[in-house]
Amino acid sequence: MRTEPLKVALLGCGVVGSEVARLMTANAADLAARVGAPLELAGIAVRRPNRTREVPGVDPRLFTTDAEALVKRDDIDLVIEVIGGIEPSRALILAALESGKSVVSANKALLAEEGARLYQAAEKHGADLYYEAAVAGAIPLVRPLRESLVGDRVHRVLGIVNGTTNFILDRMDTTGAGFSEALEEATALGYAEADPTADVEGFDAAAKAAILAGLAFHSRVTASDVYREGITEVTAADIASARAMNSVVKLLAICEVDPVAGKVSARVHPAMIPRSHPLAGVREAYNAVFIESEAAGQLMFYGPGAGGAPTASAVLGDLVAIARNKVTGSRGPGESAYAGLTVRPVGEAKTRYHISLDVDDKPGVLSAVAGIFAEQDVSIATVRQSGRGLDAQLVIVTHLAPDAALTATVARLRALDYVRDVSSVMRVESE
């Protein structure tokens, strides 16, 4: 075993960073045995030096506000970045990689935007770039895609990758709470940030979908390539419609490949799934992801997708990996973008719609509505009529059709004289 320690710089000491520092200190002997060398926390960069920080076992003298100087120190071997955001994280990670220091990051936004540039810097300077914690907290997803399934062909990645939105939708389904009420509870419990926009508008999930799609299909996919809808428009009527179909509403990240067309599809949006589907049973702030591949078949990964300790677990797993590589003089996997597939617009992606219409109670309504679907070449799977008078309603579920055709159908229905309101529109995932 090597006796000289590997010195680690930690950038950020918030919820995740403080847990990383605590676990590095508490589990130092085990980590050294697993790496083959001691790991020494040599510096912790923070933004606010006067903030009270009590991390058991950590020398307060390790804290510094000069992150750039810490990263560039000649004695630093490895860097952990848990600051988040684009800058200064991008500059700091690039500085580390360009000086040959391997990096562990939990920064999904940066990786989804600048992953290719970071990979190139790591490759050029002989460093590793690991980021298991960027996608789903403690759940191992990145490494299975980069390593375990690298000999297989992945066809589809489908899952719940944001705990905040899953908690909100779960509360709306199980307690009858409205969106605002459920968001308030999520905030009180610490599942939602003071500004929840990144979560509830789907930006967080879209960044994760971009990372997963790039890994799964060996192509460069950025967050801007991912079609995104959040959950702020999900209503009690949508939840009730799902319940009537024995389904639930989840915010799903869906990544698919069409090797014949040479295209990948990556999208994030609310969708109804049957209660019999394993994802329907993912409750509270948990995450779960299905990976479907040619040889391995269908795999499911489940667990806490956020939180200080779970995310720190993933960070330390990556730290051990890059430290081992440093000790043995080897390197982990770099970018795999050889396939170079293009991203398919969401309008070309095939999906199913559930549409609830408040209609006039008169003869010919169903025929007129069916005609709209026929005009757009959208086939109807089921239709249910209910109510009389002002309560008259049609509930329609379509077969698979291009999203653009379904969107056009909904627009035409809104303009139809017989339709008083389109009360609910939701995509449906049945597989």
TrEMBL record:
EC number: 1.1.1.3
Keywords (A to Z) from UniProt: Amino-acid biosynthesis, Methionine biosynthesis, NADP, Oxidoreductase, Sodium, Threonine biosynthesis
Pfam families, per database record: ACT, Homoserine_dh, NAD_binding_3
Reactions this protein catalyses: L-homoserine + NAD(+) = L-aspartate 4-semialdehyde + NADH + H(+); L-homoserine + NADP(+) = L-aspartate 4-semialdehyde + NADPH + H(+)
ACT domain sequence ranges: 354-427
Broad enzyme group: oxidoreductase
CC cofactor: a metal cation
Pathway entry: Amino-acid biosynthesis; L-methionine biosynthesis via de novo pathway; L-homoserine from L-aspartate: step 3/3; Amino-acid biosynthesis; L-threonine biosynthesis; L-threonine from L-aspartate: step 3/5
Similarity remark: Belongs to the homoserine dehydrogenase family.
Function of the protein: Catalyzes the conversion of L-aspartate-beta-semialdehyde (L-Asa) to L-homoserine (L-Hse), the third step in the biosynthesis of threonine and methionine from aspartate.
Protein name: Homoserine dehydrogenase
